[in-house]
Fold this protein.
Amino acid sequence: MLIFGALLVGLSLGLLGSGGSILTVPILVYGLGQGEKAAIAGSLAIVAGISALAAIPYAVQRQIAWRSVLLFGLPGMAGAWIGSRIAAGISGSVQLALFAVVMLVAAGFMLRRPSMIAPADRIPRPAWKVAIDGSAVGVLTGLVGVGGGFLIVPALVLLGGLPMSLAVGTSLVIIAGNATTGFFEHLATVRALGIALDSRTISTFITLGAIGALAGHTIGRRLPQAALRRVFAVFLLALGAYVLWRSLS
């Protein structure tokens, strides 16, 4: 389960630039038997590591919009800190229920048809609005432990005017920053609760996930992105419904 799950998370990030943490938390909770708080904290560490490594090929190929990283990513890191502080006062079962709702919303976003208006035809979004968008995604990252790539990529394309080739790499850098900030705040929380994180699982996840992400980046050039997103969305619907049912029951 560890090997399969890590490769699956990496492939998702490499192919779509999103979906990593949405898969990581259920794998840690239901596949490896971790508690909710430990799984969410560990997920943030895993997604931060994999995203940072997966972003390297994009950086080498100059496929990262660093201006968007600053405008969207820095407020996102502040939002992740705020979300993590809020999460400290919420029970793990409630976090998992919220996480399931986020999964269902993510699936809905992925199933929607993209707008017919090309990004180049859109009026650029003001910088202060981009900062608000970034901080909102960051709060979500800190609260339930998702990287938010399913929101970041469409926002960068439809609101930021980036081509898809730049949006995926930029998203990975933003996810890495948000997840890192959220992880350190969650780490303080789990330590205060006397919960120990499984460092071996986290490091194995990051290593294998990075391999999967690099493979996904290579494979993704030959596969239709729209079809991949629809298949992944259907899978998220089923998994999100299962997680919600388990958390509520």
Observations:
- Residues 144 and 195 are 17 Å apart (CA to CA).
- The radius of gyration is 17 Å.
- Confidence is low (pLDDT under 50) at residues 116-120.
- DSSP finds ten helices and no strands in the chain.
